[in-house]
UniProtKB/TrEMBL annotation:
Keyword Zinc-finger annotated: no
UniProt gene name: dapB
Chief localisation class: cytoplasm
GO molecular function: 4-hydroxy-tetrahydrodipicolinate reductase; NAD binding; NADP binding; oxidoreductase activity, acting on CH or CH2 groups, NAD or NADP as acceptor
Domain Dihydrodipicolinate reductase N-terminal: 2-128
Dihydrodipicolinate reductase C-terminal domain boundaries: 131-266
Protein name: 4-hydroxy-tetrahydrodipicolinate reductase
């Protein structure tokens, strides 16, 4: 049995994770964390799930309930808040595991998470679905196979109108994979203006579309002269991410300190 505290519990992902965690016999929901603005709406996860057999207090201050948890699953809508939670989890008196799904971290924030993972096990992944983690592998294989063969690379993602960060964390990771596989280092975000000599081959272009209720879509296009390959993942439900987060919490419970990702959890490495 793994006891989880879910941070960002009243958000789109937090509620979905709570529902799937409740349904999993190997998981016990021990508490929830919310923003100070939101926390007064519900005092207990039982009110969110409408289940009398849940007893899991919701607070804006993780330190008040951290001792109840084995693992903190963090999908808070603030990277500063998540970083604060990682510091608390890594403190000597706590040493709790973390599963982090929040995206949009700065390089400095990521470096601090990397340092703190020397003390506690952390799964950090911008996308916890099986399909997208397989897409990462397919993109790497395609990019290596097509390197220096005259294919232009474009990345397109689309998400719902409420998403804060652009491009998505998944697109950022795809770009990292493409840079490593191809050696191309120049990345442009959107496009406007004139190419006197046509599109340069030594750049990767990224387009972030936002609108409506799109759960999440990512396409990597390899466009050559006379042929085009497109690798696409479309999320139809947030359950795919939440399921991954719950699996990651079960997986990380007994792992040694270190920084892990979903490819580790899914055995895709
Ligand atoms: N890794 C993955 O597989 C996936 C990652 N994501 C990422 O997860 C994050 C959340 O997405 P989503 O659920 O759609 O966003 P939501 O805005 O629906 O939820 C975020 C929640 O976090 C709350 N929050 C804000 N500050 C704090 C705090 N200090 N402590 C605890 N909770 C806080 C927000 O409250 P308030 O509204 O009051 O600010 C809100 O309820 C995003 O970064 C998104 O990109 C999303 C899907 C999949
Ligand atoms: O905010 C979202 O909704 C999503 N965010 C993640 C990201 O930024 O990649 C994953 C997923 O695409 C949904």
């Amino acid at each position: 049995m793994v006891k989880v505290v879910i941070s960002g519990i009243m958000g789109r992902m937090g509620r979905t994770i709570a529902r799937l965690a409740y349904e999993d016999p190997e998981v016990q929901i021990a508490g929830g964390v919310e923003s100070p603005d939101c926390v007064h709406f519900h005092e207990n996860v039982k009110d969110i799930l409408n289940k009398e057999d849940v007893d899991a207090p919701i607070t804006a201050d993780l330190s008040k309930i951290i001792e109840r948890a084995d693992v903190i699953i963090d999908f808070a809508g603030s990277t500063e808040a998540v970083l604060g939670h990682v510091r608390l989890a890594a403190a000597d008196q706590n040493r709790k595991c973390m599963v982090i799904g929040t995206t949009g971290f700065s390089d400095e924030e990521l470096e601090e998470i990397r340092q703190l993972s020397k003390d506690i096990p952390i799964v950090l992944a911008p996308n916890m679905s099986i399909g997208v983690n397989l897409l990462f592998k397919l993109v790497e294989d395609a990019a290596k196979a097509l390197k220096d063969k005259g294919f232009d690379i474009e990345v397109v993602e689309m998400h719902h109108r409420y998403k804060k960060d652009s491009p998505s964390g998944t697109a950022v990771k795809i770009v990292d994979i493409l840079k490593e596989a191809t050696g191309i280092q120049k990345v442009i975000y959107g496009r406007e203006g004139i190419y006197e000599n046509g599109r340069p081959s030594d750049e990767i272009a990224v387009f972030a579309l936002r609108g409506g209720d799109v759960v999440g879509e990512h396409t990597v296009i390899f466009a050559g002269l006379g042929e085009r390959i497109e690798l696409t993942h479309r999320a139809g439900s947030r359950d795919i991410f939440a399921k991954g987060a719950v699996e990651a919490a079960k997986w990380i419970k007994d792992k040694p300190p270190g920084l892990y990702d979903m490819m580790d959890v899914l055995g895709l490495k």
